Predict the 3D structure of the following.
Amino acid sequence: MSRSNKIKSFLRDLFFKPLDLVCGPRKPNPQEDWDEIAAREQKRFPFDALVAATKDFSPHHKLGEGGFGPVFRGRLEDGRDVAVKRLSQNSNQGKKEFTNEARLLARVQHRNVVNLLGYCAHGSEKLLVYEYIPNESLDKILFRADAGRRAELDWKRRYDVILGVARGLLYLHEDSPDCIIHRDIKAGNVLLDDKWVPKIADFGMARLFPEDQGQVQTRVAGTSGYMAPEYIMHGRLTKAADVFSFGVLVLEIVAGRRNHIRSGSAYEAPNLLDWAYKMYKKGKTLEIIDPLVASTAIPEQAVLCIQIGLLCTQIDPQLRPSMSRVVLLLSKKPVVLDEQITRPGIPGRMKYQTRHRPHSSSSSDSTSSTTRTNTFGSRLSNSIASSSASASTHN
Ligand SMILES: Nc1ncnc2c1ncn2[C@@H]1O[C@H](COP(=O)(O)OP(=O)(O)OP(=O)(O)O)[C@@H](O)[C@H]1O
C-alpha cells in the first residue's frame, strides 16, 4: 500500500470507527463513486444485458415513472424478472438521490425491503436493478383500485402487510449494517409481491443515522400527510419521524382511506388521525375499519392496529413507540397495551417543488418529493398548543 493510501485508510478508520461500533462494520463514504460501489459489492450489470432484458427499454415494458425517471420490467438471461430504474439524464437532484439509493441499499437485505440486485454505469447512463415485485404498490390497491381488487386485500393480508412493513422498518432502524431512516414511508413506497408480502421501496431520501446522535438536523423532505410535525417544523430527524409515518400508514390500511389533506381546495376531508382519535376516545374504534374488510376483520387485531397507529402518530415524538416495541405488540398474543394514547400530531403539510420529473408521472401521490419550503397551517400550531391533553387507553 502506498504511503498516501495508508494515510487515507488510517483517517477512514479514525473517522468511521465510532459509527462502526454502534451500527456495523463500515459506513459508506458519501463521496464514493457509483462504479466503485457496484464493483465492491460485486453487483455490476453489463448495459447490454439490461438492454436485452427490457427489449431496449421498450415502452411496453415500462412499469411507471418516478422522480428519478422511468422504471422498466425485464427478464435477465438467467430467467430472473427484474425492475430496472433508469436515471433520467437531466436531473441533478435525481442524481444525488439515485446514488443515495444505490449506496444505502447496497448492503441491505431483508424479506420486507426491496432487494437491489445491482447497478449499471455506462457512459452517462445510470441504472439500478431490483428484484421485480409483481403485485403493484400498496397505494394503487388500497386507494386507486376498484372495490373487487381492494377487497382482495382482506383483513388477514392487511394485518400481514402492517406486520411486514413494521419488521422491514425495524430492520432498517436497528438491524441493518447501517442504521437507516427511510424518511418517506407511505403506501406508494410499499410494493407487494405475488404472495402479498410487503417490500419497502424508494430509498432516494433515506438517511444514515448515527446512533450516538439523538437526532439529525436536515433539509425537510417527504410526503405531505405522512411527515411528523416536529420534523417538518424544525427539520429534526429521528427514527420517531419514520414511526409517525408508519402510524399514518397503519391507520390508512385499516381505514382504507388516505390521510390526505387537500391543501387549498374548498373541500377538506376530515383528517384521518383526528377522526380515528375521536372515534377511539368515544369507544367506537371499530367504526374506523374499512367497510370492505369489516366482515373479515378480527376485532382484537383491528383494535390493536388502530391503537398502534395512534400511538405512533402522537404529537410528542418521545411518546411514540420504537419499531421493536411495535413488532413485539403485533407479534404477541394476547397483547396488553400499557401505553396511554395522547392526541395525534397533525402531519406536516408543505408547499413544495416536486423533484424533477422529466416526463409525466404515473404516481398519483399528492406530493412525494424534496426541495421544499415549509409552511404550517394554523391547525398545526393549534394542535401543538393543545397537545398536552392526554387520554387513557380504552377499546
Ligand atoms: N422493484 C419493482 N418491482 C415492480 N415495480 C416497481 C419496482 N420498483 C418500482 N416499481 C414501479 O415503478 C413505478 C415507478 O417507481 P419509482 O419508485 O421510481 O417512483 P414512485 O415511487 O412512483 O414515485 P417517486 O419516485 O416520486 O416516489 C411505480 O409504479 C412502481 O410501482
